[in-house]
Automatic annotation (TrEMBL):
SUPFAM superfamilies reported for this sequence: Nucleic acid-binding proteins (SSF50249), Ran binding protein zinc finger-like (SSF90209)
Keyword Metal-binding attributed: yes
One Pfam family per UniProt: tRNA_bind
Keyword Zinc-finger (UniProt): yes
Domain RanBP2-type, first and last residues per copy: 1-29
Gene3D superfamilies xrefs: Nucleic acid-binding proteins, Zinc finger, RanBP2-type
Organism of derivation: Eutreptiella gymnastica
The protein's name: RanBP2-type domain-containing protein
MF term (GO), any: tRNA binding
Superkingdom of the organism of origin: Eukaryota
Phylogenetic placement of the source organism: Eukaryota, Discoba, Euglenozoa, Euglenida, Spirocuta
Keywords on record: Metal-binding, RNA-binding, tRNA-binding, Zinc, Zinc-finger
Coiled coil (UniProt feature): none
Length: 150
């Protein structure tokens, strides 16, 4: 697991720490071009779409309105997940795909839940959405490696 160094006091911190354990200075925001358009979000609402295996969800990504997404992943309200928003590019099975607003199962979907392999994380399950601890702020870019859930 990687660590980060506080810019204020040079304390080495664990990868999961969002503030310095020595001085409470916030962790510097990661800016990784690979994750341009990827945001940490919290699922605030879920609704099964009748006669399908799809679920319509609303995800708070720290903006004025939650993002509406249709997924076949097993999800529940309160999960902190990684979302690829409209306009972002994902790698799926070695191919680049630009996320577009689309109609899925008769519902509008304006993004996509990311799984661990899409993010380049080791040990992630391709059939499950990538999750991060609540210590990651809504709207932030995801970390470059899979964080430990507490």
């Amino acid at each position: 697991m990687s660590t980060w160094e506080c810019q204020e006091c040079a304390q080495e911190n664990e990868a999961d720490d969002q503030v310095c354990v020595a001085c409470d200075e916030p962790r510097p925001k990661e800016s990784n071009p690979r994750y341009q358009g990827y945001k940490v979000g919290s699922i605030v609402e879920t609704a099964a779409i009748p006669k399908t295996k799809l679920t319509e969800i609303k995800v708070d990504i720290g903006e004025a309105e939650p993002v509406n997404i249709v997924t076949n992943a097993k999800v529940k309200a309160g999960m902190r997940v990684v979302v690829a928003i409209v306009g972002s590019t994902i790698m799926d099975n070695g191919e680049e795909t630009v996320i577009k607003k689309t109609n899925v199962g008769g519902r509008c979907s304006a993004g996509m839940l990311c799984n661990g392999p899409m993010l380049g994380w080791v040990g992630g399950d391709a059939s499950a959405p990538a999750q991060v601890p609540e210590s990651f702020a809504l709207g932030d870019q995801p970390p470059s490696s899979r964080p430990r859930l507490k």
